């Protein structure tokens, strides 16, 4: 029963990644960061499934299957209320003799309808030399949530945690398990295929991916970081080491990079389909077209937010000397702002915020990074419009101050912004709106990377004042 040509789940998920995700560490005798990520993800999955199965819209009559969980080589769910509503399949190695005997057994009687379902925990054998035996994995299929989690170690002993909501990736992972089962226990395949057919992989609701992200972040810090048992050489902290975050913070930031990647993927797909539909605008009613435009804009806003969080996490985890390598070039801030005014106006209008932008007819050039500056400015604008109640106002003023350009964002209300809560080292969470944003310290670091500076001042009874200073182009000034 050769399995050498069948990819493992880790190989499948890694193949479909648009870029290498963080998750690699040198070999160690202690549990790795990737293992802590796996534990946090399993805890988050359990809570998310409990929530889904307890909601009236998802709950089903007793005796009906609500989903499938295929895992290996050990169980991942322990909650009795979940096990009573799921078909749980456990893939683990068995001796070749036992596998050979099972192939002569008669297949189990098939249920005639979904109401005949009896919760089961079925063992699915793997041959001992299958590379899948070396991975911990979990494939989840439910009406609203499809997810694959993988923890694997390569030949060099490096551990990596990966996960995906992509229907394409999940389908390939299922086919990889199905092929293996055909080789070891073909008599079990028809019944499992019948169950899987009830829960085809689908792009999940954005609220589910966001909820999974929050739960994962909440559980990750609670997984205790093991104390190394091997004495490490004592080193004097360097200048760059002092400015770098601690090990746990570093791990959290890398985890955020992986999460933002997974959130962007389904949103990009939804936006692509939406824009394809909008190309046939002549065949659509005006109401449908407006709704599609709203979906497109919301996806774009969320994608931009995830890209900014990803970029911030990337810069925070890099050494100081690497951050200095960002190329700053002369650019016209006036052009950058004018390009984004329509997007900012739409953000404000959707939240019934009045936006007043005072832009002089002529502005000197500045020195910065065009793409990153545009992302950070849009992130600030979104933070302001999301944190203010309906009916508030935001004023944007641009002036010069010596050899710097002064960009001010003035808001008239800080009621909601005072309720922001810290979520880890990078993010702030607003309970009233459910939105995530970069905290101000990280945003300040981004502006320092851009060669500028951000100051924040709370004006009593007036609101919040964010002031950005950006360096002017010295060559243009001397000319």
In short:
The chain is of the alpha+beta class. It contains 15 helices and 16 strands.
Throw out a few tags for this protein.
single chain; 479 residues; alpha+beta; Helix Hairpins; Heat Shock Protein 90; 15 helices
Could you walk me through the main structural features you see in this protein, from its secondary elements to its overall organization?
The chain is an alpha+beta fold and 479 residues long. The protein has three domains: 9-106 and 113-219, no CATH class; 244-323, Helix Hairpins; 329-478, 2-Layer Sandwich (Heat Shock Protein 90), CATH 3.30.565. It has 15 helices and 16 strands. The protein has helices spanning 9-15, 33-54, 80-83, 96-102, 167-184, 189-196, 206-219, 239-243, 247-278, 286-317, 320-323, 333-350, 370-387, 440-449, 474-478, and strands spanning 67-72, 86-93, 120-126, 136-141, 146-153, 159-164, 329-331, 354-358, 366-368, 393-401, 404-411, 421-423, 427-430, 435-438, 453-459, 463-471. Strands 3-2-1-4-5-6 form a six-stranded mixed beta sheet, with helices on both faces. Mean pLDDT is 75; it is low at 18-31, 110-117, 223-245 and 319-324.
How are the elements arranged and paired?
Blueprint: H1 9-15, H2 33-54, E1 67-72, H3 80-83, E2 86-93, H4 96-102, E3 120-126, E4 136-141, E5 146-153, E6 159-164, H5 167-184, H6 189-196, H7 206-219, H8 239-243, H9 247-278, H10 286-317, H11 320-323, E7 329-331, H12 333-350, E8 354-358, E9 366-368, H13 370-387, E10 393-401, E11 404-411, E12 421-423, E13 427-430, E14 435-438, H14 440-449, E15 453-459, E16 463-471, H15 474-478
Parallel strand pairs: 1-2, 2-3, 8-10
Antiparallel strand pairs: 1-4, 4-5, 5-6, 7-9, 10-11, 11-16, 12-13, 13-14, 15-16
């Amino acid at each position: 029963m050769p399995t050498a040509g069948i990819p493992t789940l880790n190989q499948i998920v890694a193949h479909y990644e648009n870029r290498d995700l963080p998750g690699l560490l040198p070999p160690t005798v202690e549990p790795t960061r990737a293992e802590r990520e796996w534990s946090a993800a399993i805890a988050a999955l359990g809570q998310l499934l409990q929530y889904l199965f307890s909601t009236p819209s998802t709950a089903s009559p007793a005796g009906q299957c609500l989903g499938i969980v295929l895992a290996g080589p050990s169980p991942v769910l322990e909650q009795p209320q979940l096990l009573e509503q799921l078909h749980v399949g456990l893939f683990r190695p068995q001796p070749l003799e036992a596998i050979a005997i099972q192939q002569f057994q008669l297949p189990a009687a098939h249920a005639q309808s979904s109401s005949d379902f009896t919760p089961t925990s079925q063992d699915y054998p793997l041959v001992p030399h299958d590379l899948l035996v070396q991975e911990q994995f979990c494939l989840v299929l439910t009406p609203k949530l499809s997810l694959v989690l993988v923890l694997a170690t390569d030949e060099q002993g490096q551990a990596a945690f990966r996960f995906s909501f992509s229907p394409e990736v999940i389908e390939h992972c299922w086919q990889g398990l199905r092929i293996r089962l055909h080789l070891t226990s073909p008599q079990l395949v028809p019944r499992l295929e019948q169950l899987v057919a009830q829960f085809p992989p689908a792009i999940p609701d954005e609220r589910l991916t966001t909820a999974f992200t929050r739960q994962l972040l909440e559980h990750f810090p609670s997984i205790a970081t093991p104390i190394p048992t091997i004495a490490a050489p004592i080193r004097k902290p360097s200048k760059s080491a002092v400015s770098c975050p601690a090990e746990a913070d570093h791990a959290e930031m890398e985890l955020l990079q992986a999460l933002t990647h997974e959130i962007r993927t389904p949103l990009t797909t939804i936006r692509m389909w939406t824009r394809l539909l909008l190309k046939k605008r002549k065949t659509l009613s005006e109401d449908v077209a407006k709704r599609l435009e709203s979906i497109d804009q919301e996806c774009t806003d969320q994608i931009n937010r995830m890209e900014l969080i990803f970029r911030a996490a990337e810069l925070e985890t890099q050494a100081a000397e690497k951050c200095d390598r960002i190329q700053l070039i002369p650019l016209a801030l006036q052009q950058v702002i004018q390009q984004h005014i329509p997007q900012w106006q739409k953000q404000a209008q959707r939240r019934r915020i009045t936006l007043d932008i005072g832009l002089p007819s002529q502005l000197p050039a500045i020195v910065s990074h065009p793409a990153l500056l545009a992302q950070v400015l849009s992130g600030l604008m979104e933070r302001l419009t999301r944190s203010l109640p309906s009916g508030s106002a935001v004023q944007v003023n641009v002036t010069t101050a010596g050899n710097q350009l002064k960009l001010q964002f003035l808001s008239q209300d800080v009621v909601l912004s005072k309720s922001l809560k810290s979520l880890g080292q990078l993010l702030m969470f607003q309970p009233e709106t459910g939105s995530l944003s970069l905290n101000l310290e990280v945003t300040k670091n981004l502006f320092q990377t851009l060669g500028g500076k951000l100051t924040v001042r709370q004006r009593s009874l007036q609101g919040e004042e964010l002031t950005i200073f950006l360096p002017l182009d010295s060559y243009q000034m001397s000319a």
